């Protein structure tokens, strides 16, 4: 990490690589995030409607509960776990392949800081872009819940919308964004570490990719607990 987080030798080249990684790792993740968020938002709304089926509970609580679940946990933590599999495996296999084909060794022979050159653009790109995915996931999840309510008529769509707007805490939006920014560092640095020190040919690259996904997922859950304690206490 000391080698990674140093000033780039060529800022213009760094910016070019960062924009490329932002598109490759971030922008291409939009479809899977969008599809999962729409369906999970619908599932959450349906489950809340079934569990809040009581005359003593106002129907607006269904929209409220759906919003809180999406903002507090799903759109940051669950999306981060999904990205740990998609993006993390990509990073670990890419850097691991460069290691076993001795491309990284060639960079170091030329006096280039290979860790900084290969990893820092990925870290910065995802720290900038992934919070956007969190916001997009929250919006699409709420829309998915609204579509489910409108189609099935489990409650009135007006009650669902009123619940979405009821007692809204703006900090929850920033809470999810902050968590995703921290998770983005985990999603990039841990797979990059495993890929950077991969060995044993193509089999070793596959093993490093698998280990990076497991380690990233564990660290995401640990930091989810820590950040929740720090930010919401």
Structure report:
The protein is mainly α and 233 residues long. The chain has one domain (11-232). The chain contains eight helices and no strands. It has helices spanning 11-26, 30-51, 60-100, 103-109, 114-152, 157-165, 171-196, 201-232. Helix 3 packs antiparallel against helix 5, helix 3 (60-100) crosses helix 6 and helix 5 (114-152) packs across helix 6. It is elongated.
The description of the largest β-sheet is: none
Helix content range: over 70%
Report the uncertain regions.
Answer: none
Beta-strand portion reads under 5%
Helix-strand string = HHHHHHHH
What oligomeric arrangement do these chains adopt?
Answer: single chain
Large-scale geometry = elongated
Counting structural domains, the number is 1
Radius of gyration: 21 Å
Number of strands: 0
Class per helix and strand makeup: mainly alpha
Q: Helix and strand layout, with pairings?
A:
Layout: H1 11-26, H2 30-51, H3 60-100, H4 103-109, H5 114-152, H6 157-165, H7 171-196, H8 201-232
State the main characteristics.
82% helix, 233 residues, 8 helices, single chain, mainly alpha
Summarize this entry quickly.
This protein has helices spanning 11-26, 30-51, 60-100, 103-109, 114-152, 157-165, 171-196, 201-232. α1 packs parallel to α5 and α2 (30-51) packs antiparallel against α3.
